[in-house]
Sequence to fold (398 residues):
Amino acid sequence: MTRFKSGARTDVLIVGGGIIGLAVAWRAAQRGLRVVVVDPAHGGGAAMVAAGMLAPVTELQYGEEPLLRLGMASNERYAAFAAELEEASGLPTGYRACGTLAVALDSDDREELRELHAFHRRLGLDSTWLTGRECRRLEPMLAPGVRGGLHVADDHQVDGRRLAAALVAACERAGAVLHRAEVAELLVTADRATGARLSTGERLDAERVVLAAGPHSHLLPGLPAGVLPPVRPVKGQILRLRVPAAYRPFLSRNVRAVVRGQHLYLVPREDGELVIGATSEEQGYDTTVTAGGVYELLRDAHDLVPGITELPLVETSAGLRPGSPDNAPLLGPTALPGLVAATGHYRNGVLLTPVTADLLADYLATGVLPDLAAPFSPGRFSTGPTSFEPSPPAKALA
Fold:
């Protein structure tokens, strides 16, 4: 791995070493660009908590058709992306083509799923309506009261933690510099982003700066006002259980439902881990695991799969999703020349990793942003002239 040198100049400086920043770095390095990723703990962030569902169809909500197209484009790339990444890193990603079953526990949920199925059909999406009996035939552990469901064969999963570790290794092998530090300030010269000053006192100049710091992105010290909208943190609590070998397969595919108005999903790994998530809480930057959050997840999961309470609970955790004002990502050049956004992915960060990496690497290498990214331009939130007066120095940002 190339060593970082203070005062050096690079092609691309990436602020944030989560899976989005790392994937962009890997693809950019493959294009022959000199890349430095600055983060105090590369491979951390929301991926350490995420269940890793790749579910553009079953996650679809009304009015999100552009996001659906982006998600499906990313999902279509995932198998090849994971295989290439595993070869490049020598590590597994946990990618698994298993499909997803979305089920209804009462008549109201069933009607909601019926409407979603009709929406899928209008959009030409591949989802199949099943009776409750057919759902239980696919997943015998489901509660007897399941009223029906949707089977989506192409909504799969990946292990976010393994994905992050593989990206770290692949970046290093591709020649990207992973520098452990915090960014103390964005450097702006003549109304252009030109690099960063680090918490260590080091300075790095760059042709382009990519902001991939998740829910902290808009808080970068030195970032001019109005360049990025607030990227708010949305807290999610999640549980990890262990399925003993004698009980496997407990579930064969991703299972999701709406229980008491709350979205719930269960993601079974091949190694016996079962991930249950996730709450959705507007609690600022708090990542406390609460008794209430754990209780609600276990209670709702028990209603869906009664046998869940017999399994060992091995981990509870909470993370922060980066939500934009319209809950869609910010991809591409910002109003500040030289500054590029790759943030705001909200609940789709793991799903959108391959397509974000490809789109941003194309832009960084050619200066042309692919059409697929056009609906997600950071400029869609602009309300007037942008002031390039930098914000005062504040706490350093990963």
